[in-house]
Amino acid sequence: MSLVEVFSISPFDWRAVGTSIMCGTIIGIERQLRGKPVGIRTSALITLGTYIFIAASMLVSTSATDPTRIIGQVITGIGFIGAGVMLARDGMVLGVTSAATIWALASIGVCIAIGYDLIAIKLSIVVVVVLAGVDILEDYSQALRRGVHKKYQDWMDKTKSNTMSE
User: Which of these, 103, 54, 109, 105, lies nearest to 82 by C-alpha position?
Assistant: First the structure.
């Protein structure tokens, strides 16, 4: 058995696997640095898993099958995972951004599976710009800290002060 055979993942593609892990890592670093539940490992695995499912569905495609149905099923499964990240606490729903990030990660995995690696990388950067950019805007504008966001910030401040006083 040659080294090429040992490291072959044919019919899958190492370039796509690397792109999946890189895109997930780009987004996961931002989430992990902020202490959010969807960090580097989770993000990389979501993009990689989505790539593998979609690429595999395209490989078994025949005139009697429809690989786009797998995309729909991935979206449903990712929605379930996203729902698990969200929780209600003290009248507020937390984790909605993490759930939306999971959804975006899966869509990036789909892009990679259908051959749009460079676009997937660009979209990963766009996701990070949105996640970090809105936080920066919220820091500079009190108008963006109204409603649920203000309640969440007040709750976080209260939680921090209770933790520090213990």
Answer: 103
| Number of domains composing the chain | 1
Check if the beta carbon of residue 133 is closer than 8 Å to that of residue 78.
Answer: no
- pLDDT tens, position by position, 1-58: 888 888 888 889 999 999 999 999 999 999 999 998 889 999 999 999 999 999 998 8
Predicted TM-score (pTM) of the model is 0.81
State which residues form the domain around 42: 3-165
* Across 94-114, average pLDDT: 94
**Residues 33, 38, 44: CA angle, nearest 5 degrees:** 95
Tokens found for residue 7? 């490291």
Residue identified by tokens 């979609």 is 54
State the Cα–Cα distance between residues 109 and 120, nearest whole angstrom.
8
Q: Return the number of other C-beta atoms located less than 10 Å from residue 9's C-beta.
A: 10
Contacts with 1 (C-beta within 8 Å, 6 or more apart), sequence order: none
Helix (H) or strand (E) holding 149: helix 147-165
Please give the C-alpha separations between residue 123 and each of 109, 117, 119, in angstroms, as whole numbers.
Answer: 11, 10, 6
* Confidence (pLDDT) at 52: 94
DSSP 8-state assignment for residue 142: G
